[in-house]
Fold each of these.
Amino acid sequence: MPVLELKNIIKNYPDGQNVNEVLKEINFHVNQGEFAAIVGPSGAGKSTLLTIMGALLSPTSGSVLLNNQDIGQLSKKQQTDIRLNKIGFIFQNSDLIPYLKISDQLKFIQKISNKNPIDSDKILKELGLGHRLNSYPNALSGGEKQRVAIARAFINQPDLILADEPTASLDSKRGHEVVKIIQETVHQQNKAAVMVTHDERVLDLVDSIWQIEDGRLKRVKA
């Protein structure tokens, strides 16, 4: 059974007297232990699709199944709980809280969730951030910020990781390092992950590649 499955997803937006079809009959799945990438040109619908996967946006029609549960049928509160406890997000700009020390970034997420706490400092040390535990985000490099964002995404042991252009603000070397960390963590912890990216330099690290163009999605590498 896939961890995440999309069935016949359509997303339309009104455009004056017309309708803009952003996503057209999208079908997709990602399994446990699989790291999938979605590639495509700007404006093809990648970010919209990822936002729907994360229950941050509702499709016009179709089903989003997380562990065979249609999360589109849940209440807003239930969807919030799903995002907090079942889905980990990695954004392109890391989006760290500027007034929290690095160790506290993860502890804050643990505090507001209902998962059993694990040693957040240990995770940061494993990602090479042991010397940054008491630093604030403005003291970190771009690569270090993204490693904190990865730790934060995995801290509640979610079933699904969603990464939106995680290398966008990084050079080639640091970008490859960051995606390598995601890949290794996904495989070691047997999670499912989906990454939207323009960066073809990191596609050697994923297990499957899907291409979206003009709102239509197809699998190009199994």
Amino acid sequence: MYKGSCLCGKVSYELHSEPKAVSHCHCNMCQKQHGAAFATYASLPKSDLSYISGSEVLASYNSSESVVRKFCSNCGSSIEWSSSKKFPSWVSIAIATLDTPYNPSKIKNIYQASSVCWLVNS
């Protein structure tokens, strides 16, 4: 089991299975939402995500027709996105919000066509 929380600590959650399909997403929506060059998400079945506290302060935003993003309305931490038409029973968690150590064996880079020009790859 993995545990995570937002910056202010009002939202906390648990993951009840090993996250899958970890990716650095370079799309413009993730860049804007995170204020960063990319966002790193790990996917798992929605049924394996439990909010322990703060579900009442989670805000949601439809960033596109098929994606709903959730974040803490107090501190702004991005927590999840879901509602993908391709994978409706899955959720993607922003792994930077994990409090439990997690070391994915593989991370895929996606939407690299919109990568920022100032990101230095090493």
Amino acid sequence: MPAPSPLPTFLYKILPSAPPSPLPPRLPLSDLDRKDGYIHLSTSEQVASTADKWFDSFSELWLLKIKYDVLEAGTDGDGEVKTDNQAEIKWEEVGRGCFAHFYNGDLGSGNVKEAIKVEKTGTWADSLSLEW
């Protein structure tokens, strides 16, 4: 499945609770990411609908904001570019659209720009204003 055009500047990972601070070089995978074999990511336009579908009962979420070009380069959570079994983004069709999946890598202090706490006011769409 082709990537969106134009490509996003940022991708987001939704977390149900605060990540460690400071971020370690490698964050633990969620049960879903471990089961599926990749890290589920969303563009700014997909975060609200993903949050509504999977995190509707939560009153706050944390988002990891990740520069797309850093992940596309194969940068792992420790900040190193993996040259063997390279970490990579694949855009794949899911029932609700085309989503970014990060394979063969981790998220951490070396590839996450910042962690953002978001409190729900109304719907998640009402609560979010994210950079593409």
Amino acid sequence: MSITIRDVQEHELDAILAMNNAAGSGILPMNQAQIRYFWQNADYFRVAETDDCLVGFLIAMTRDADYESSNFRWFKDHYGAFVYVDRIVIAKGQRSAGIGRLFYADVQSFAEVRAPALVAEVFMEESTHPALLFHGSFGFHEVGQHQMPDSPLRAAMLYKEMCSYPFVQATYGSQLPAVPWLQGRRRPAADARRATGT
């Protein structure tokens, strides 16, 4: 089975929303406005595709995102620069195919040239213990816990140091080489601002 990880396309948002909302209790549900927000603002929004079918997605934001998630704000209150994994969803029936590992290798490649840390949270329920093990196997460690406001959900806040970042920063600063694999996602919101001159 061949798996492709690539940037999301706008016509795929409805399918991604349905996949998210069918994922179970470990993933917060979304609505149309939220998926549209991610389409316009996420620094990293990629999908996994196999045999022309979407089988997963991962959304991540840098620290300077204008994002209201209480989990995201927890990391902003505690750390400087980072890349925050907001959610990773793998379609049912595809969860033992290694797609999550491919996504994390890809998002780490994105993060390690942009920030000193990759961060995420996992809800502390029995059903999410495999997710905690998964993140631990990638080198994440717990740096705190966060009780979401107006919710019974408590999250384990996870942190992974990006060991390559000091070298990248010392060598290139904020001016990364102009090669395709280092280019960030072309966000529609940014494209619209450029088109209007704002």
